[in-house]
């Protein structure tokens, strides 16, 4: 069994890294959240950096753990009869403040979760603009063991933003000078599928020195320190119950 979740308690804050969205990701996340809740955490840092994505149904289940109603993701293609809207159906299991960490390696299903939590104002997203893999592909078997991968639709966030080639723009962007010159995203690939309605969202920017190194220890990372700072601000907004912070969680 391949591990999909890495979790730890850091002070009164829970930290969970989702490595990839495979078959048991949602159930593993549920167990990790339950253990952290037993430690009476005040908020959660959800790390989706370098998560390449995976299964749509797992991304939907994970998103639903934080919201209780509304759209999770829309799937729209050339044939309108095949369009699909996935809604939250279950009650959320975590209602406290959340910060999501992303970078240019956050793709596909991980972008679906990020876009859902951001559009529902359920989390503050920190990091870099994500990869931008927002297309739906069918694999059509052919002769001699070959297969054709056909793009049939695109993913859209609850607010109607296309993920394809645009990615998810964080609320707070942490970047180095000229960093984008060295980052490969979907939009840099030859003949990539574009989005007709590109919406540029201006994030709050934090520029860091080019010689700022990534630390092996999570606690020493600049982005982690910023996440803790933001999360503590969110926690102070709702000292009694995180449910009071988010009006859409109220019936």
Automatic annotation (TrEMBL):
SMART domains: TSPc. The keyword Hydrolase applies. The keyword Protease applies. Residues 1-175 form the Tail specific protease domain. One of its GO terms (biological process) is signal transduction. Keywords: Hydrolase, Protease, Serine protease. Gene3D superfamilies: 2-enoyl-CoA Hydratase, Chain A, domain 1. One of its GO terms (molecular function) is endopeptidase activity. GO terms for cellular component: outer membrane-bounded periplasmic space. It comes from the Bacteria. InterPro entries: ClpP/crotonase-like_dom_sf (IPR029045), Peptidase_S41A (IPR004447), Tail-specific_protease (IPR005151). Coiled coil: none annotated. This is Peptidase S41.
């Amino acid at each position: 069994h391949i591990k999909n979740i890495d979790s730890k308690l850091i002070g009164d804050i829970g930290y969970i890294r989702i490595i990839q969205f495979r078959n048991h990701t949602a159930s593993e996340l549920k167990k990790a959240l339950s253990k952290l809740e037993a430690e009476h955490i005040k908020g959660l840092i959800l790390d989706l950096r370098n998560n390449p994505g995976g299964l749509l149904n797992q991304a939907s289940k994970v998103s639903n753990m934080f919201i209780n109603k509304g759209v999770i993701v829309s799937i729209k293609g050339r044939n309108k009869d095949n369009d699909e809207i996935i809604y939250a159906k279950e009650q959320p299991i975590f209602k406290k403040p959340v910060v999501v960490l992303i970078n240019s390696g956050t793709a596909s299903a991980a972008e679906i979760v990020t876009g859902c939590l951001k559009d529902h104002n359920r989390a503050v997203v920190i990091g870099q603009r994500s990869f931008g893999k927002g297309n739906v592909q069918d694999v059509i078997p052919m002769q001699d063991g070959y297969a054709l991968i056909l793009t049939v639709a695109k993913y859209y966030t609850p607010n109607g933003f296309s993920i394809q080639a645009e990615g998810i723009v964080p609320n707070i962007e942490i970047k180095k000078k000229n960093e984008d010159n060295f980052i490969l995203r979907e939009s840099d690939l030859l003949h990539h599928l574009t989005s007709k309605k590109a919406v540029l969202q201006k994030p709050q920017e934090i520029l860091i020195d080019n010689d700022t190194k990534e630390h092996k220890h999570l606690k020493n990372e600049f982005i982690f320190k910023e996440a803790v700072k933001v999360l503590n601000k969110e926690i102070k907004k709702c000292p009694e119950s995180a449910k009071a912070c988010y009006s859409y969680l109220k019936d």
